[in-house]
Amino acid sequence: MPEEASDVVVIGAGLIGLSVAWRLAADGIQVTVCDPTPGTQTSSVAAGMLAPVTEVEYGEDALLALNLASVAAWPGFAAELEALTGLPAGLNRTGTLSVAYDVDDAAAIRRLAEYQRRLGLEVEELTGRETRKREPLLAAGVTAGVWVAGDHSVDNRQTVAALLRATELVGVRLIRQRVTRILTTGTTATGVQLESGDTITAPQIVAAAGPWSAQLEGIPQELLPPVRPLKGEILRLRVPEAYRPALHHTVRATARGFAVYLVPRPGGELVVGATTSELGYDTRVLAGGVFSLLRDARMILPITDELELVESVAGLRPATPDNAPILGPSGIDGLLWATGHYRNGVLLTPITAQVIAETVQTGAVPELAAPFLASRFSEHGQADGSAETVPKVAR
Q1: Do residues 71 and 347 make contact, with C-beta atoms less than 8 angstroms apart?
Q2: Which domain covers residue 16, as residue numbers?
Q3: Are 90 and 154 in contact (CB under 8 A)?
Q4: Distance (Å, rounded) from C-alpha 352 to C-alpha 338?
Q5: 61-85 and 349-362 helices cross at what angle (nearest 10)?
Q6: To bridge 229 with a disulfide, which of 25, 61, 119, 211 should be the other Cys (CB 3.0-4.6 Å)?
Q7: Do residues 125 and 258 both lie within one domain?
Q8: Predicted local distance difference test score (pLDDT) of residue 390
Q9: pTM for the full model?
Q10: Which CATH number goes with the domain that contains 145?
Q11: CA separation for the pair 95, 128 (Å, rounded)
Q12: What is the pLDDT of residues 137-146, one digit of tens each?
C-alpha cells in the first residue's frame, strides 16, 4: 500500500477541521486534510448563529467563557479570511432579539435575562411594543423581548467556501477520502489509513470528525470520545423583495413553550431552525419536523406563510454528555481531539483553530481550553482542570 507523510493530518473538512488546517499551514506546517465530502455535512446545514449570550445555559460558565472568547475573535477571523481569499466570510453583525409570544414565554426569557445579568452579560429587556418597534413584522401577540447587541450570525456556507479557498492558498493538501483507521505504535498515533488502503504517516493527528468522531477505528474503546449525533432539521425560506428585510436581526423566539429561531441573510434568505431528536445517523427530513418549524415560525412572524420554501435539510450535531466540546489530548500520544461542539460549532470555529494550532506548535494546551479535555469524562480524569501537554510539531 502506498505511504505518504505529512507534519499534521486533520480528519474532517468541516469548519473546525478547515480552520485548524488553515492556521497550521499558514505558520509553515505541512498539513493534509482527509474528508470524502469537504464542507458539505454539519457545517453546511447550521444556521450560523454566533450567540454566546442568548444560548447560555444555567451552569455552563466555563463554556460561556470559551464562547465569549470566540465571538470576540470572529471579526478578526473573518477579516483575515476575506483579505486572503477575496471571498465573503459571511459575518453579519446585526445583534440578536429574543422574543416571547405569551406571558409564560415572557416569564421564561425574563428569568434567563436575570441570570445573564448575574453573569455580567449585557442584555436589555423590552416590552412587547419596544420589541415590535425593532422588528415591525413580528406578530402583534409578541409580549416581550430581550435585546443582545453582541450576538450575531454568519452565513456558514460562505465561511466554508472561503476556508476551502484559504486552505488551498496556504498549501493544505486535501484528500477526498474517509479515514478508516488511526495507525498506532504502542500508545502513539503514527498516521492514518484511508478507505483506499493508502496510509499517511504524521507525528500529529487532529480528529475533527464531528458526530463521526467515536466511529474512528484503531482507538481503544475507553479512549473514544463520548460524542453522539443529535439530529436537527432546518428550513431555508426566500423573502420576496416587497417584504425585505423581513427581519433586521436574528430572532430567537419562545412560542408557547417551543423554541424557534429565525436568522436573516443579507440576500433575502431566512433560515428557520431547528428541531432536536435522538435518531442516530438518520438525516431524513421528516414532515413532522417541517410542520413544527413552520408552525412556530408563523406564530412569531406571520408573513412566513408567504415565503418560498427553498430547502429543508437535516444535519447532525456532535453532542457530548455536558454539551461542551472536547479539545486537546486524546490519551494517545500524537492524537488531538477537536470535536463535540454540539450547537456551537460555527461560533467556536476561530477559538478552536487557535487552541489546536497552539497545542500542536507548543505542546501545551492553552488555559482557556483546560476545562474541555477528554479526560474529564474518564474515571481518573483531571478534576482540577489542569492542562495536559503533548509532543509539539516543529515548523
Answers
A1: yes
A2: 1-92+152-227+320-395
A3: yes
A4: 7
A5: 90
A6: 211
A7: yes
A8: 62
A9: 0.94
A10: 3.30.9.10
A11: 18
A12: 999 999 999 9
